[in-house]
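Task: encode each sequence below as structure tokens.

Item 1
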Amino acid sequence: MTLIQNEDLIQSVADALQYISYYHPPDFIAALHEAWKREKSPAARDALAQILVNSRLCAEGKRPICQDTGIVTVFLDIGMEVRWEGGMSVADMVNEGVRRAYLLPDNVLRASILDDPIGARKNTGDNTPAVIHMRLVAGSTIHVRLAAKGGGSENKARMAMLNPSDSLADWVVDTLPGMGAGWCPPGMLGIGVGGTAEQATLLAKEALMDSIDIHELRERGPQNRKEELRLEIVERANRLGIGAQGLGGLTTVLDAKILDYPTHAASLPVAMIPNCAATRHAHFTLDGSGVAELKPPALDRWPVLDWDATAGSRKVNLATIDSEEIANWRPGETLLLSGKLLTGRDAAHKRLLAMLEAGESLPEGVDLENRFIYYVGPVDPVRSEVIGPAGPTTASRMDKFTDKLLAHTGILGMIGKAERGPVGIDAIQKHKAVYLIAVGGAAYLVSKAIRAARVIAFEDLGMEAIHEFEVEDMPVTVAVDVNGESIHESGPALWRRHMAEQHPIEVT
């Protein structure tokens, strides 16, 4: 019989969530570095470099890898010989650990969880509650696996009920292009097979808790059907040419993990959930000896890259920008933005449009004429920061607002991550605007370009309030030009052709 204090689980959860907010798993860094070394696409190689540079900065500065510090998912295997010292439920202990982690003054994490999801959608303020899965198992310890999962990658989860004779690999490869780049590739795919619909999805999420080891599997060769499928899926997925951030390139998937469960003879439930470039998970065991200890990885696990944002980039002064200047920009071109821009995401867009359609004046300071709007929900600043990590959110969520907002306000351009959908692209082309992307998974690096920040409207929306940022040399890439041409269409198409024609490029 093992006696475990309530406080030991609470503090272990809090410590682990802080740890994963700024330390990538070493296996992920190693795989990403190898992908960077192999990459031949200049745009994808630059995106990979930014993610790696950002990761090292976060490890050194102990600040979040991504501004979306995630919804917490916890798997607990609780030994049946464990006894608790204290009167709290397991769920209450876990949620108290989440609360402590996300409100820690030295490294504030963004609260992203909304209560009443189909009603008021009010932020809980401390990122609780977590999604908790518990199993009673033999033994006298508690094994905990937890992750902080960003909304961009979670939104790309897919589930299907296949026929028993259908090909799992075909389904994955057919499904991936439709997921777009909002999950911030490259990352790992968690795949669940069997059981029932909900079991397959749970297995897919659990598979993401594993380490990247596809390189070891290649070296020794597959020993069963699941391992054969892993190799096939990774190879075929990367030949899609989607690449880092969807810009086109050699590496879209770093690994694919498969967990399965017995299923009905008439069924083949499958689910796929991607992990983004802010892969965050940790494992620890409580044995009654106290709070779990997570040892920081050595900084020499991170490569030191000679990344220069100014190389080949066009400098842009946001104070003097006009429609004539943006008409010269082309998809794939890199820019360095300096000047003032406004921020706004889903909730702010909805409120702005409601005001415009009601004939109301916009809040003081929200003048969008000839301005750029950045789709971001930043982390609160700590110490001397003007703003916390402030990477882009998925732009396609704003597509349904874009036409009306451009028509009413005269916005010149938008900045986000991943592709725009047909509705968004049509609006951009119609109004001769542009869409730029910043690298998802490089939030701390992006924040270094922000010299001043202030909330100018909708403060009650928290991280979704409208800010004014003053930026200096903020790195972005032209994703959709005034003619509606998208790098997220042309880039992957180019690299698919390269690989299909067996172009002399190393593909692994």
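Item 2
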Amino acid sequence: MPASIRKFIKSLLYPLYEWRLVRALDFSKTPHHVGVILDGNRRWAKANPSNTDPNGHKAGAHKIIEFLGWCEEADVRVVTLWLLSTDNFKRSSDEIEELLRIIGDTVDELAATGRWNIKAVGALDLLPPWLADKLGQLQPSQVGKLEVNVAVSYGGRREIVDAVKSFLSEEEKSGHTLDQAKDKLTSDEISKFLYTAGQPDPELLIRTSGEQRLGGFLLWQSALSEFYFCEAYWPDFRRVDFLRALRAYSLRKRRFGS
């Protein structure tokens, strides 16, 4: 059967498949916090070459608003999107410059919708001033119920180090000795200084592109998370893929380490 015909048949069947998935889902079991590693842009670009989007980052950015709409429909409360890791700075300067520009434009587009409460999480001091200022000046929306964390210049180990440093700084300001601070140091105390402080830990983490590793994403917060790995590259990630992830999550028996 020619590929064009197979594609046409799939286009007819997918709406029915999505409808069946939605009917089967129990939205009372929807994860409150979903983390997503938006992986596969560059590999997608190799399969879909374009002079205007050589690394696929524009295509990946265009998927974000659509994805957040799906999360709203599913009653997700918090979404954390990993847009740029601290390790990504090892890439070529040209690609990093392009990616930072696209991230800045994407944040502007998200803020302009007025639909979501957007928060930047990451080591903003590693970013160029124009982007660090933009991210630092994000104002919460009074309309949207969905909280969106844009993880930019983010690394899980860096976050934990920053949390411990912030804890020690607060203890010093309070006039406590190092021994007093050490006695007070607990996992709950560290959690108060994470980038995501005040938000629930993610129940579900999704990674696209077929890679089955977290790479340090939400390293502290993901201790009890469920993981879902999807073969699709991020620009090709569809609503049906998201629904499959929610279905897989709803079928798992969460043991919380027991």
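Check on item 2: The two ends are 50 Å apart (CA to CA). Strands lie at 33-37, 78-85, 117-121, 147-154, 204-207, 226-229.
End of task.
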